[in-house]
Design brief:
Blueprint lengths: L31 H11 L2 H16 L3 H25 L6 H9 L1 H33 L3 H5 L1 H21 L1 H32 L21 H15 L4 H4 L10 H35 L6 H11 L4 H31 L18 H21 L1 H9 L1 H19 L8 H29 L16 H23 L13 H4 L6
């Protein structure tokens, strides 16, 4: 039986020692706060808010805050799975390593592939938004509208952010700390001014005073709950980047997992504050009418709310996307490193820079593929770039759901030890996984309709996002089979159960 098969593979390099081996990442490079900041920035809060507020209000009107609150639930449940799995396996490959341990190498490999491809699909788009809003911030609107200028600057931004990632985790953390301060300060300034103008009657649109009933996700009917869960994938995705740094964080058995959980909580507070402010100031009619503008809703509202200080909001979106450009590279590169160390990918991706102690080959590899993807889809159309972002929901829902199931499976012998274990390690992650599996099915059905794509066009009779998702998965399957035929070491690993000593925090004898 699988329960009785010992997990004989060696553990990942210890993150408790200050001395690194030749193939190890730099231990104790950053602390809990740095990991928390990276987790928050990975979601690109300002950009995520700007992109979803219009569509959410068009769907549920004043009950948008309730949708944001509902969206938080499955993310918190999956964050619990990340926390508990990290306690017993501090491997930078996260989902790849955990699913392999719990359910075998085939599902583990696919989970790792999904994480890597989310980075490839989104990095170019994030850098593009950072450049576009950055140019608008300094008044270079003509440059922002010039495709050649914007795309050239986007590639340069990706290269610079990748170089920072390679130089070291400390350097990445320092940059992120500055960017999060700029971003959160700008968002809070926007929210405070908007609410102030609502209550003083100095708003320029059609303001309405916020009410606690706006938190009811069912206020606008069942569509509110459905829409909220769909949007959760984009709004909250990315917080787990903190856990991908587990081998480089102090107190690696607990700090990265706590950073992931607290990232979702901080995001909830930020999202609720700004959503209340935006809906109150602009009113549901204005937001619904401009829902198609996506992230440019903030650009339009900035002048209305802030007057001559509208650059503050534009700057927030720019720094948000810039920060996420950098942090999104982290989980993709660390996952590739972990897979290569286990021979699930070519060993070249396991190389560690001798000076900086970072996975330089996998980091640059992710950047090069991301740039190629960005330039390719940009040549097709701007809508194709948006469709590639939509396809993300398939991959994200897949590997989040896998992680939730892996948590319950790997801890299965310990779930009845206490009510807390049953709820937080078993039932919670499984419920989160079930919600995301349902989301995956809903997304496939939605993407199959070409009318739901960014440009309303058809590729092979279905929507472009579904085609992109299928192609990414198909390429992954081909590479996986090729690796299985070329090497058998990784594929001989068998699933097992977690070590009781690790569960209870005991040192192995």
């Amino acid at each position: 039986m699988a329960d009785d098969v010992a997990d004989t593979r060696p553990p990942p390099p210890s993150a408790h020692s200050h001395e690194e081996g030749p193939g190890e990442l730099k231990h104790n490079a950053i602390g809990f706060v740095d990991a928390l900041v990276i987790g928050i920035n990975s979601t690109s809060p300002a950009y995520s808010l700007a992109a979803v507020i219009g569509p959410v209000v068009a769907l549920v009107s004043i009950y948008a805050p309730g949708v944001v609150l509902t969206s938080f639930v499955p993310m918190l449940l999956i964050a619990s799975a990340f926390f508990h799995l990290n306690r017993v396996d501090q491997d930078c490959g996260t989902t790849f390593s955990w699913v392999t341990r719990a359910m075998g190498p085939w599902l583990g490999w696919l989970g790792g592939w999904a994480i890597m491809m989310t980075g490839v699909l989104v990095v170019g788009s994030l850098a593009d938004v950072a450049v576009g809003f950055g140019l608008l911030t300094v008044g270079l609107d003509n440059w922002a509208a010039n495709d050649l200028v914007r795309q050239s600057l986007t590639v340069a931004v990706i290269l610079v952010m990748t170089a920072i990632c390679v130089i070291g985790t400390e350097a990445s953390a320092h940059v992120q700390n500055v960017l999060i301060l700029a971003q959160i300060a700008s968002l809070l300034a926007f929210a405070v001014v908007a609410i102030y103008r609502v209550y003083t009657g100095t708003g320029t649109l059609d303001p309405i005073r916020p009410e606690i009933t706006w938190l009811d996700p069912f206020g606008a009917g069942g569509a509110a709950l459905t829409g909220g869960l769909l949007l959760a994938v984009f709004m909250y995705w990315g917080w787990e980047s903190a856990v991908n740094l587990t081998e480089e964080v102090k107190h690696s058995e607990s700090a990265p997992g706590r950073a992931g959980v607290w990232s979702t909580v901080v995001l909830l507070v930020t999202y609720l504050s700004v959503t209340f402010a935006v809906v109150a100031y602009a009113g549901p009619t204005y937001l619904a009418e401009n829902a198609d503008e996506e992230e440019f809703v903030f650009a339009m509202l900035a002048g209305q709310v802030m007057g001559g200080w509208d650059w503050v909001v534009l700057f927030a979106v720019s720094t948000s996307a810039l920060a996420s450009t950098q942090t999104t590279i982290i989980p993709a590169s660390r996952t590739a490193l972990s897979m290569a160390r286990r021979h699930a990918l070519p060993s070249v991706f396991a190389r560690i820079h001798p000076r900086f102690r970072t996975p330089h080959v996998s980091t640059w590899g992710v950047a090069v593929v991301a740039i190629a993807w960005y330039l390719l889809v940009s040549r097709i159309s701007e809508n194709a770039l948006l469709d590639s972002l939509t396809a993300l929901s398939l991959l994200i829902a897949f590997y989040y759901a896998l992680t939730g199931v892996a948590c319950a499976v790997y801890y299965r012998r310990h779930l009845t030890e206490s009510v807390r274990s049953f709820l937080l390690i078993g039932a919670g992650p499984l419920i989160g996984a079930g919600l995301l599996a349902w989301l995956l099915v809903v997304s496939v059905g939605d993407m199959s309709d070409p009318a739901n794509s960014a440009g309303g066009v058809s590729w092979f009779g279905v929507g472009p996002p579904l085609v992109i998702g299928i192609v990414v998965i198909a390429v992954g399957l081909v590479i996986m089979v090729a690796r299985r035929l070329s090497t058998g070491e990784f594929w001989r690993e068998r699933p097992g159960v977690c070590d009781p000593d690790a569960v209870h925090g005991r040192k192995p004898s």
